[in-house]
Design brief:
heterodimer, A: alpha/beta, Rossmann fold, 4 domains, seven-stranded parallel beta sheet, elongated, B: alpha/beta, 2-enoyl-CoA Hydratase, Chain A, domain 1, six-stranded mixed beta sheet
């Protein structure tokens, strides 16, 4: 489709061409780091000679506005075209001359400008406000601050500076609300279906909702809930980590509540989501507060990748349709709601930019005008057609799964939203139950992956559900956005401008756009597999392993139990205790251990450090020299017999590569003494001694949780090792603090929780197993030993310990009550 | 009168042959018309009065030696060295031959008033014996008298303080042995000569030595020129050991060698396993039922239980001769006695040699037969059980039957695990392996630690296992393992086959469709005298 030729006035006429009109002007742009903003900046630099562009940018936490300008705007591939046309040096010079950044923030009254910033703002001829919280699931108050109050803050600041540049405010067609039929280019309040709302009370309500949610999240019951959730997730990882996680969960809960508040408030007054709702009230507030500032409102519909400028398919960030398209192409969205004959109002970003610049060039009208940039009326793309195009594209160019097999896209039958949601909710609940059941089982290593797989599936379903809830309304929207004003603008354009600043939605050939422009761009940006066959190069695990074993690493720290050997403090105790026992004494030892095991287990799960303290009391009075003499037997019988050969090999590989190796373990120093030659250093738990016998009391805090991390940090300090260049191996979430302080954490045979965490964080996971053929006894008891029958068995201690055990259990219970 | 070994030509009426298959059994029909089976001789009669025979041997030494009693005097330093857990196979029923001999020697020493006596298990680079194993070898009485005082020890080839360099052979080979033994007035070596390779100067020069010394003959070059290492006069391995023996003798180290031979009665003539050493065509219905039941039972049993079952077997094999005195002279007699039990005359070589590998070899007593040991048992030991020419022609094929699981004993064979995972993943060529990896493993601190304090074979030991097969690897056109774990067999560099008939099909690519087949029916052990 080509635009209808329109009689174009002579150059002297009322509509000077866009470039000419904006030449030499100083234009302030908000939201330049966004999709639309970047496109506007690029077009101004390339197509409007000698205009000056000022970007209002929020300073980052660790970066200045100039850094953000360079990194987040000018380095975008949108500028590749201009850079190539001019050459890098000329491009840089052009940017230095024509682009500058001002620190400011539309969520702050007065825009957070300093004096210099105010002066710059005051000197601008045009302000293009494209900053917005575009996410459909923004928290209500965030959306209110940016979308509702943002435009108002701009005009108020301009007013206070006593200037009146032309403000072009970018809004959205969807301010018209959820409705069927024509939606003309009129002010929100002029619509006969506008629910009259006082925007001020909405602002107050949103802020109050935030305060309420914050307060609510801090009630003892909620805090206890977050704490137990955190514990369920990361286990006995120590107080500091647990605290950090609890606080994260609380913050997330508040955010979720605010999102929910936004969605429900918007729905209650007839908008599909908080975005459209706050935008609508934002327009309202803007018009009320604009004072003498001339305002034009431009309302695009759903903005998608560029039709032609700066190049076909240019896109920045994935917003609405893209995640859905990709989920569909991955076969994850089995169904999606929508009205097949409904119109999906999509508009390429470069058309929107052109419309905005055309409006800016035209200048303000007497009354604040509205221009809708939409395709639904003039050049509709029907939902069914879109689905057909997408499905056709991915049938022809399928994505490939991890095994290199093409993914077959599902066929949608356009059911109602309720049905899809119900289906997904059911699936989500079932998977959630399965996940909880699996995580309650004592699984490790490869089995723990089952749980991770279920979690992945559940997350997929959850995401699908999120899409349906968020975007379903858009697929069902049957509003038609009229574009009379836009077409008038087009008509007024010169031939030249109709090419350079084309904003006529009729030029889009949807079939071509979807198939050859938009989808290829989406696929490229998503970095998905588009070729068949298994990976030729090293897989992810192999890549991570190479990083871990790179010669430049400094230090490798190892946990012992279930990382290097399939054993624990209880096994080594039982072995040592049974070493000099015969007959009934042995049976008593076993019976006592079996009786106590569940208690030990739950204690260990609660707090590893407490458990170790408590358990080591059993060594009270044990003769030190005898334990030392028995340690060699323990090495063969227990440690090596239960060792993971792959793990031992890894320690040695690190040493061969010149890395420092250290074992940090909660096991007793006498027990791990025979392993000393394997490492450069061994840091183990030490018990106090008295006259050659153990006292059963620890000399220092056992190396668990954050203590282990602290030990590692101190060790690295003492040996001048960079933890960022170091590796840590551990099996349980109680080692999380240690894993988190190093640059290369490795989860070994992880239990379910650590497995999930490792997967999310992209850590290397090693599944090391005992050698097939290892001697396997049910109980870790020592074989017959008769070297010296005069040695005292540890049994006396056992009896004492079991005596005090019941006391302890009683105390613990009392304390918990 | 026991019947000698024989070679049976397979015809249509030949029943299926029993193949040992690790801790399992297979019954295989060999192709008629082109196959033959070598059966071992029946067990020789054991000595009627072993203790009397021992006493007689000690009193009537062979060669240039006085009777043992005459060599013992008060105040002297006496070291009794004895063969380790690798002999005999399977472990014998108590009392062990070593116990009988050591008790006899100790009686004489006590009578002579010798009070500085030390017992050393001459294990070279093998794993240290456990208390149970030592008790079994020397008996509780000896163990309890010596071990608690530190006078019954395992040789430690990595203890620099307890090794002594004796000299260098005319070939430049360093001779280094246990210091206590070297500085003793007399070494009494108590040997069990299960196969012709054992004994002689190899007992002392290998059993009590160190890596420094061993590497001169435990290497690829030597093993490729030992044809075979079961035939001492054609074995470079033995020539080197004998040269070292000369150095020991010239240095004034006195060795009183006591060698014993045993019959091949490994499964007994009665009892549950007796059928395993009967010739198939002589099986009664009851035997056939027993074999099938045993096979079915074993196939269904978990691997661990199967392993425990077989490794708890104590064989009834018994002593057939004992001779003592000067090393060379004693060993000549010993070898003749070994041959009397083992040699079976065989005419001509074969294209394909088949063998069913049993559950045990020298290095997996009370342990796991890992894939490297499977290779060593088949291509090291069984292949080399020949005199004259190898049973299989050059370029021929060996088909072995063994499950070859990817199983390792983590305590006994830690360096084997790494050898299998790292070295064999790189190459299976013995010379490349020797050059590229031997030193690294041999001098590894962690393996050294495990060898000395735990019960691990020395870091270099898996290399020796591989070198043991070097002669066969150079000689053969192809090696096929029937019923083995595919991945493990591939790692060894061999071809896996699911059945014997498949293996024979695969072999025909190498030796043609009408190749001759010889089956080595072992155990019990036999040695082919190939003409």
């Amino acid at each position: 489709m080509t635009p209808e030729p329109s009689p174009h006035p002579a150059p002297a006429g009322p509509a000077p061409d866009v470039a000419g009109a904006l030449e030499g002007k100083r234009i302030l742009i908000t939201g330049a780091t966004g999709f639309l903003g970047t496109n506007i900046v690029e077009r101004l630099l390339r197509c409007v000679p000698d205009c000056e562009v000022v970007l209002l940018i929020r300073p980052g936490r660790r970066s200045t506005v100039d850094q953000r300008l360079r990194r987040e705007v000018l380095r975008n591939d949108a500028f590749d075209r201009l850079r190539n046309e001019l050459g890098t040096d000329a491009f840089d010079a052009l940017c230095d001359r024509r682009v500058s950044a001002v620190a400011g923030d539309v969520t702050t009254n007065g825009l957070g400008l300093d004096d210099a910033g105010q002066a710059v703002l005051a000197s601008c001829d045009v302000v293009i406000h494209s900053a917005a919280a575009v996410s459909f699931d923004s928290p209500l108050d965030a959306a209110v601050e940016v979308n509702l109050l943002g435009p108002t803050r701009i005009v108020e600041t301009l007013g206070s500076l006593g200037v009146t540049p032309h403000l072009v405010a970018v809004s959205t067609c969807y301010v018209a609300g959820s409705r069927r039929g024509n939606a003309p280019e009129q002010h929100v309040a002029d619509s006969p279906w506008f629910v009259d709302l006082d925007w001020r009370s909405e602002v107050d309500a949103a802020r109050r909702a935030r305060r309420d949610a914050e307060a609510d999240s801090r009630t003892p019951e909620r805090l206890e809930g977050f704490r137990s959730d955190a514990r369920r997730e990361i286990g006995a990882a120590g107080t500091p980590l647990l605290a950090a996680r609890t606080e994260q969960l609380r913050a997330r809960w508040v955010a979720d509540r605010m999102v929910e508040a936004g969605r429900s408030r918007a729905a209650s007054v007839g908008w599909p989501d908080a975005y459209a709702f706050t935008k609508a009230l934002g327009e309202r507030a803007l018009l009320e507060n604009r004072g003498a500032v001339p305002v034009s409102i431009v309302r695009p519909s759903i903005i998608e990748s560029a039709l032609a400028e700066p190049f076909p398919g240019w896109i920045r960030g994935f917003r609405m349709a893209e995640p859905i398209i990709l989920s569909y192409a991955r076969g994850l969205l089995k169904e999606f709601p929508g009205v097949p004959e409904g119109v999906v109002d999509v508009i390429p970003v470069d058309l929107v930019t052109a419309a905005i610049l055309t409006v800016a060039a035209r200048g303000p009208l007497d009354t604040s005008d509205v221009v809708q940039v939409a395709s639904g009326v003039a050049n509709p793309l029907r939902y069914r057609r879109l689905v057909d195009l997408v499905s056709g594209y991915f049938t022809q160019h399928p994505l490939y799964d991890r095994k290199g097999q093409p993914i077959v896209v599902p066929t949608w039958s356009f059911p109602g939203r309720g049905r899809v949601q119900a289906q997904l909710k059911r699936a989500n609940d079932t998977l959630g139950r399965a996940e909880r059941a699996l995580s309650a089982l004592p699984l490790r290593g490869r089995q723990a992956q089952w749980s991770a797989d279920v979690e992945t599936r559940r997350e997929d379903v959850e995401r699908a559900l999120g899409y349906v809830e968020l975007y379903g309304a858009y697929a069902e929207c049957e509003a038609l956005y009229e574009i009379d004003n836009l077409l008038a603008l087009v008509d007024a354009q010169s031939d030249e401008d109709q090419r350079t600043f084309c904003c006529d939605p009729r030029v889009v050939d949807w079939d071509d756009y979807v198939r050859t422009i938009h989808l290829p761009s989406v696929v490229t940006h998503a970095r998905v597999r588009t070729t068949a066959g298994a990976d030729r190069g090293p897989d992810r695990t192999e890549r991570l392993r190479r990083q871990v074993l790179a010669p430049e690493r400094h230090l490798a720290a190892f946990d012992l139990e279930n990382t290097l050997i399939a054993s624990n403090v209880v096994s080594s105790y039982l072995w040592l205790a049974s070493r000099h026992l015969t007959g009934t004494d042995r049976l008593r030892l076993v019976a006592d251990a079996l009786r106590s095991a569940p208690g030990w287990l739950s204690m260990d799960r609660r707090d590893r450090s407490d458990f170790l303290r408590y358990f080591y009391r059993r060594y009270d009075g044990a003769p030190l020299d005898q334990l030392r003499a028995d340690a060699d037997g323990l090495l063969s019988d227990l440690l090596l017999a239960r060792a993971f050969p792959g793990a031992i090999r890894r320690v040695r590989e690190h040493r061969r590569l010149g890395h420092r190796t250290v074992l940090i373990t909660g096991a007793l120093d006498v027990v791990v003494e025979p392993l000393r030659p394997l490492f450069d250093d061994v840091i183990a738990t030490e018990l106090g001694t008295d006259a050659g016998r153990f006292t059963g009391e620890l000399l220092s805090a056992p190396p668990t949780g954050e203590t282990r991390a602290q030990i590692l940090m101190d060790y690295a300090d003492a040996h001048d090792c960079d933890l960022g260049e170091s590796v840590a191996y551990a099996d349980s979430t109680s080692d999380l603090p240690m894993l988190e302080v190093v640059g290369f954490p490795v989860a070994v045979n992880p239990e379910t929780r650590l497995s999930a965490l490792a997967r999310k964080r992209g850590w290397l996971v090693e599944n090391w197993e005992r050698a097939n053929g290892s001697p396997r006894g049910v109980l870790p008891l020592s074989g017959r030993w008769s070297d010296d029958r005069s040695r005292t068995p540890l049994l006396r201690r056992l009896v004492n310990a079991s005596g005090s055990r019941s006391d302890d259990a009683g105390r613990t219970k009392a304390a918990r009550r | 009168m026991p019947r000698p070994g024989l070679v049976l030509d397979v015809d249509r009426s030949t029943p299926p042959v029993l193949f040992n298959h690790g801790e399992q059994l297979r019954l295989e029909k060999l192709p008629a018309g082109r196959s033959r089976i070598i059966y071992p001789a029946e067990p020789l009669e054991p000595l009627a009065d072993p203790d009397g025979a021992i006493a007689h041997a000690l009193a009537h030494p062979i060669g240039d030696s006085e009777p043992l009693a005459a060599l013992l005097r008060p105040g002297m330093k006496l070291t009794i060295a004895f063969d380790d857990v690798s002999l005999p196979l399977p472990p014998m029923r108590a009392p062990d031959i070593r116990q009988r001999v050591i008790e006899a020697v100790l009686d004489l020493a006590a009578a002579a008033g010798v009070d500085d006596v030390m017992l050393i298990a001459a294990l070279a680079l093998h794993r240290r014996m456990t208390e149970d194993e030592l008790r079994h070898a020397v008996g509780d009485r000896v163990y309890d008298a010596f071990a608690p005082h530190g006078l019954l020890v395992n040789h430690d080839a990595e203890d620099p303080d307890n090794l002594k360099e004796i000299g260098t052979t005319r070939h430049g080979e360093v001779v280094e042995i246990n210091r206590r033994a070297a500085e003793s007035d007399l070494i009494v070596y108590v040997n069990i000569n299960l196969v012709a390779m054992d004994g002689g100067w190899k007992s002392t020069a290998t059993g009590l030595s160190s890596y420094r010394s061993l590497r001169h003959h435990h290497n690829v070059e030597t093993m490729e020129h030992s044809r075979s290492f079961m035939d001492r006069h054609n074995s470079e391995l033995h020539r080197s050991n004998w040269r070292m023996g000369e150095v020991l003798r010239d240095a004034g180290i006195k060795v009183f060698q006591i060698e014993t031979t045993m019959n091949n009665d490994v499964f007994g003539t009665t009892g549950p396993l007796a059928v395993l050493q009967k010739r198939e065509w002589e099986w009664t219905t009851r035997d056939r039922v027993a074999v099938h039941a045993m096979k079915a039972g074993l196939d269904r049993m978990p691997a661990g239980a199967r392993r425990n079952l077989f490794h708890s077997w104590r064989a009834p094999h018994a002593m057939t001769s004992v001779q003592a005195g000067e090393v060379d002279a004693v060993h000549e007699v010993t070898t003749a006695n070994v041959y009397a039990q083992h040699l079976v005359p065989v005419e001509g070589q074969t294209d394909i040699l088949t063998m069913g590998l049993p559950y045990i070899g020298p290095y997996n007593v009370n342990s796991v037969m890992n894939p490297i040991l499977v290779m060593c048992l088949g291509l090291g030991y069984f292949f080399n059980l020949y005199r004259g020419r190898p049973l299989v022609r050059e370029g021929g094929v060996v088909i072995m039957s063994h499950p070859t699981p990817w199983d390792f004993h983590p305590v006994h064979h830690p360096s084997y695990i790494d050898f299998f995972e790292q070295v064999l993943a790189d190459t299976t060529d013995p010379r490349v392996i020797e050059e590229r990896y031997e030193r690294q493993f041999a001098e590894d601190e962690w393996y050294r630690h495990l060898y000395r304090t735990s019960h691990a074979y020395h870091g270099v030991h898996p290399f020796y296992m591989w070198y043991w097969g070097a002669h066969a690897l150079a000689h053969l056109g192809r090696v096929i393992i029937v019923g083995g774990d595919r991945a493990a067999v591939h790692r060894l560099g061999f071809t896996p086959a699911s059945s014997l008939s498949d293996a024979l099909e695969l072999a025909s690519d190498t030796v043609g469709p009408h190749a001759t087949i010889t089956h080595l029916h072992n155990p019990p052990i036999l040695m082919a005298d190939v003409t």
